């Protein structure tokens, strides 16, 4: 049985049961979930395309020798350099995943690529400007987010350099790419971009579907009742950042709209979200392997929460 025959069978079943399907899809929860699913995918897809184009350009036009010359030889110094380099790439977390994998395949140390993966979505100018607009009465929130996110990227890079193992990452993500000659560079650019888009796009759909279901399941009233409980608010906002899977360019406006919540839990939401959420976990699992994602994601959640709290205490004066 071919895929075409399966598609025809599904279409026939859909036609026969269209009244039941229409009544089921008309439920308010399903409509809300469908709207969120489409919003997550549409919001992330342009940046994912940008990321795979950048990854294809790195594979085709950036020789490994150039990266070796640009990065410091000492890995401990190269990690913060990669984090700061994230300022120059205005992209969301979806785009950073294929770029990080391409950097690994070009011989960049894994810890350096992962530092860039975590920094680029959170410290680029678009995100910082959006945060400033969302919090006009709290200008320190921009500096607090920048510091907390950059610290998360650097600390996770250093932790991976000390404790990470290459065996946790699937072999295809580390496989070195042969240097193309002048005639095949454009072919490699298009082929790698297409392959990365197909590969990452499927996991983006899975992550978007998960985020839609969780958005419907979690009652909004639970969040609104946490304003007077700082520690619980921090925990819940960190969990919401993981579950809601918002794009880093838009999450500041969502955080600002949560009435009654102090600034510190909102900062935790803004630092944790671009570092790890269900959408990003699905992309990491598909790109680097499940063994990597199951270790890297929980560690990132803990480090991002801790860095956000410390940054909030320093720049926001505690609860804020």
Automatic annotation (TrEMBL):
Transmembrane segments: 44-67, 111-135, 141-161, 197-218, 230-247, 254-276, 296-319
Domain of life: Bacteria
Pfam families the record matches: ArsP_1
Localization (cell): Cell membrane
InterPro entries for this protein: DUF318, UPF0718
This protein's record includes keyword Secreted: no
Membrane protein topology class: Multi-pass membrane protein
One Gene Ontology cellular component: plasma membrane
Keywords from the named record: Cell membrane, Membrane, Transmembrane, Transmembrane helix
Similarity section: Belongs to the UPF0718 family.
Record protein name field: Permease
Organism name: Actinokineospora spheciospongiae
């Amino acid at each position: 049985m071919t895929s075409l025959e399966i598609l025809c069978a599904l279409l026939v079943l859909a036609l026969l049961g269209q009244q039941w399907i229409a009544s089921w899809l008309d439920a308010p929860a399903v409509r809300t979930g469908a709207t969120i699913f489409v919003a997550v995918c549409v919001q992330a897809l342009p940046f994912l395309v940008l990321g795979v184009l950048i990854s294809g350009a790195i594979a085709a036009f950036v020789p490994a020798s150039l990266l070796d010359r640009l990065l410091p030889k000492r890995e401990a110094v190269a990690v913060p350099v990669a984090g700061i380099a994230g300022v120059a790439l205005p992209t969301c977390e979806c785009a950073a995943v294929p770029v990080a994998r391409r950097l690994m395949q070009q011989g960049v140390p894994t810890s350096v690529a992962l530092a860039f993966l975590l920094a680029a979505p959170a410290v680029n100018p678009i995100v910082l400007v959006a945060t400033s607009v969302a919090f006009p009465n709290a200008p320190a929130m921009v500096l607090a987010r920048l510091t907390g996110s950059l610290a998360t990227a650097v600390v996770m890079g250093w932790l991976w350099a000390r404790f990470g193992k290459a065996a946790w990452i699937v072999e295809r993500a580390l496989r070195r790419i042969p240097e193309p000659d002048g005639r095949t560079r454009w072919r490699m650019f298009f082929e790698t971009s297409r392959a990365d888009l197909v590969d990452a796009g499927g996991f983006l759909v899975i992550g978007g579907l998960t985020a839609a279901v969780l958005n419907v399941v979690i009652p909004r009233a639970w969040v609104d009742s946490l304003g007077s409980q700082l520690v619980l608010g921090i925990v819940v906002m960190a969990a919401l950042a993981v579950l809601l899977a918002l794009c880093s360019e838009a999450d500041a406006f969502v955080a600002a709209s949560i009435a009654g919540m102090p600034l510190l839990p909102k900062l935790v939401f803004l630092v944790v979200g671009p570092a790890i959420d269900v959408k990003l976990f699905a992309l990491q699992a598909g790109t680097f392997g499940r063994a990597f994602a199951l270790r890297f994601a929980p560690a990132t959640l803990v480090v991002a929460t801790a860095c956000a709290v410390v940054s909030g205490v320093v720049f926001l004066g505690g609860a804020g």
